[in-house]
Design brief:
Order of helices and strands: HEHEHEH
Number of helices: 4
Distance between the termini: 44 Å
Strand content: 5-15%
Shape: globular
Oligomer: single chain
Radius of gyration: 18 Å
Largest sheet: 3 strands, parallel
Structural class: alpha/beta
Number of strands: 3
Helix content: 25-40%
Length: about 140
């Protein structure tokens, strides 16, 4: 949202805060899915002002005052003299992520190194999470 928006002063945003606001959804959110579930409203009850395919495009729409966009934190610059800010959702709204590649793909060295590093990090995080929830 814009930094000068009244909701920007809140520590977190709850569904009721957005029920009467124009929202900007990702184009892949065809049925509303996770967002409509979190909002507690159907798509027919929500004012979807626009959709986007790239978050940068959504940020431009937000800057122009078209509405509020849902995004993962730290993807768009909201620091310094940016006119945008990020306010977390309450209850927390999380999304799963996937990293996909073609089977038997031949990668350049840099891409191979990136993929190897990502696999190690994900494995490490998985083990860390698994250990956290293991009962001893």
């Amino acid at each position: 949202m814009k930094k000068n928006d009244p909701l920007a002063e809140k520590k977190s945003i709850c569904p009721e805060d957005l029920w009467d606001k124009p929202l900007i959804f990702n184009r892949n959110t065809k049925d509303g899915g996770l967002l409509t579930s979190w909002l507690g409203k159907s798509l027919a009850e929500i004012h979807v002002a626009a959709t986007y395919n790239l978050l940068y495009n959504a940020s431009l729409m937000v800057k122009e005052g078209l509405g509020y966009s849902f995004a993962l934190d730290k993807i768009i610059n909201t620091t310094g003299d940016s006119t945008l800010c990020y306010v977390p959702c309450e209850p927390e709204l999380t999304a799963g992520m996937s990293l996909l590649w073609k089977k038997y793909q031949i990668f350049p060295k840099a891409a191979e190194k990136f993929l190897d590093t990502m696999q190690k990090e994900i494995t490490s995080l998985y083990r860390e999470t698994e250990n956290r929830y293991t009962v001893s």
